[in-house]
Amino acid sequence: MAKVATVVTNLVEDVEYTEPVKALRDAGHEVVTVEKTAGGEVKGKHGTKIQVDKSIDDVKVDDFDALLIPGGFSPDQLRADERFVNFAKAFMDAKKPVFAICHGPQLLITAKTLDGRHATGYKSIQVDMENAGVNFQDKEVVVCENQLVTSRTPDDIPAFNREIVNLLK
């Protein structure tokens, strides 16, 4: 089974973390939560407390099979930290599976890894994605090159979860 890193910080969209993590774990995969410091917790926009497993300083891409980037305000904060940008870029460069929902693609925009890709995201980042070279598709889930899975909003979580679990089979 796969080992999946998920990068989060405070104000992550709760269900965009909890639901995909549950789907991945239910499918037998290991999910490791990565933030700036290990051992603490972050709080979602709606109050969910999320335990942090590892510090970004203590992980490397080779330790994982895939990356999950939940939305909310978390990805916008994370993209201001070069360590998270480089971590996300390394997954894309290595052609490892990357799953980003809602505002999650913001981290990939900053990593400059979306040029020429088919993807979707929350409507407020559509222009940013198009400026980054994305062929933006307003669909509940977009799978690009059997590597990148993106969705728009919490309403799309069932389709997002289906595709991320299918991609790791």
UniProtKB/TrEMBL annotation:
It comes from Rummeliibacillus stabekisii. InterPro entries: C56_PfpI-like (IPR006286), Class_I_gatase-like (IPR029062), DJ-1/PfpI (IPR002818). This is Protease. Residues 3-166 form the DJ-1/PfpI domain. GO terms for molecular function: peptidase activity. Belongs to the peptidase C56 family. The keyword Protease applies. It holds the Pfam family DJ-1_PfpI.
